[in-house]
């Protein structure tokens, strides 16, 4: 049996989810007539106290649509140097929005308010106009790290005072919320737009939702059309999303517990230098004197799949299809690996 830990996107729909998909009521969503898509968009927006939602094929699309809404020619986005919108979206900030980017550092992928303030361009003929700050929670490259709501507040205030929009790449936002117990509505108040993936820890086969104001989502719908993301009887997919919101949020805690245990197993291993603090479902391990490629090969021989994550790091992600029995197996197989 292969133990699949490359990503939480590799899960297959559960039988309950498949049943919900089969029995979905559908219509043409480009006409606004798919009742299941409409229900999903309304449900997720309401959870965060926001006005409207837009169902899209991917989290890359929801992020890129948001960036398009909040930028224009000769403008600039502030984000972390390890953010998904910069590293992993095909250069879309440039090619979709013609915007410039200012990259900041920050421990475990989190931006500091004082750095954001410093990074806002002056009103000067030489500089692109800063219009958007984009945050990520949980932070993938930060090892699944979390921002607490009180860390967002000063950033929110800086954006308000300087007329900047604030976007959240919340691909794994529910992983953060089940850990902190914070109210999604308090998060909804802080951001102009939030992107949430259904296809990560929530276990759907496809889909992400962008939530925001009525006005922004109306514009977003038009951008989605231009990006080729207007789907027809998408209710079959949205039904999986509704099912996941009803059944797969609380159980994310189990993924986090297993990730912590997995991190402890790795920590004791002779080839591992250190493990990033495990907060949610992502475990990043720094290697000692072995390349990621060779380590991944050794893991693969014992039936464990992970990915390279930087020049001396590998990443494991726990998910819906990874259970306690596989965790125990993981520990045993790890002990079989040596130089
Ligand atoms: C997965 C992910 C996305 C969106 O990815 P898609 O594969 O396009 O759905 C966005 N941000 C982060 C942090 C992610 O992990």
Automatic annotation (TrEMBL):
Hey, which family's this protein in?
Belongs to the threonine aldolase family.
Q: Which InterPro entries match?
A: ArAA_b-elim_lyase/Thr_aldolase (IPR001597), Low_specificity_L-TA-like (IPR023603), PyrdxlP-dep_Trfase (IPR015424), PyrdxlP-dep_Trfase_major (IPR015421), PyrdxlP-dep_Trfase_small (IPR015422)
Name the source organism.
Answer: Belliella filtrata
Keyword entries, A-Z: Lyase, Pyridoxal phosphate
The protein depicted here goes by the name Beta-eliminating lyase-related protein
Domain (Aromatic amino acid beta-eliminating lyase/threonine aldolase) spans 4-288
MF-aspect GO terms: lyase activity
This protein's cofactor list reads: pyridoxal 5'-phosphate
């Amino acid at each position: 049996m292969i133990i699949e830990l490359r990503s939480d996107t590799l899960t297959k729909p559960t039988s309950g989810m498949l049943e919900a998909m089969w029995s979905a009521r559908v219509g043409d969503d480009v006409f606004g007539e798919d009742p299941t898509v409409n229900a999903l968009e309304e449900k997720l927006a309401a959870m965060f106290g926001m006005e409207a939602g837009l169902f899209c094929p991917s989290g890359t699309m929801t992020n890129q649509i948001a960036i398009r809404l909040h930028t224009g020619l000769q403008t600039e986005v502030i984000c972390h140097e390890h953010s998904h919108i910069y590293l992993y979206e095909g250069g879309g900030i440039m090619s979709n929005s013609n915007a410039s980017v200012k990259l900041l550092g920050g421990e475990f992928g989190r931006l500091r308010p004082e750095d954001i303030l410093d990074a806002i361009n002056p009103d000067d003929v030489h500089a692109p106009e800063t219009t958007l700050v984009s945050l990520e929670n949980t932070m993938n490259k930060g090892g699944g790290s979390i921002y607490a709501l009180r860390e967002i507040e000063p950033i929110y205030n800086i954006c308000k005072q300087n007329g900047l929009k604030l976007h959240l790449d919340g691909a794994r936002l529910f992983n953060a919320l089940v850990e902190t117990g914070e109210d999604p509505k308090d998060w909804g108040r802080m951001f102009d737009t939030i992107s949430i993936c259904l296809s990560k820890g929530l276990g759907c086969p496809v889909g992400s939702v962008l939530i925001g104001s009525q006005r922004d989502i109306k514009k977003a719908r038009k951008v989605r059309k231009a990006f080729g993301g207007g789907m027809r009887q998408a209710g079959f997919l949205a039904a999986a999303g509704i099912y996941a919101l009803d059944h797969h949020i609380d159980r994310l805690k189990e993924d986090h517990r297993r990730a912590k245990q997995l991190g402890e197993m790795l920590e004791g291993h002779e080839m591992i230098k250190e493990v990033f603090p495990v907060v949610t479902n992502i475990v990043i391990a720094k290697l000692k004197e072995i390349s990621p490629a060779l380590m991944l090969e050794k893991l693969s021989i014992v039936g464990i799949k992970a990915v390279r994550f930087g020049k001396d790091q590998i990443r494991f992600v726990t998910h819906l299809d990874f259970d306690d029995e596989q965790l125990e197996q993981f520990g045993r197989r790890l002990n079989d690996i040596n130089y």
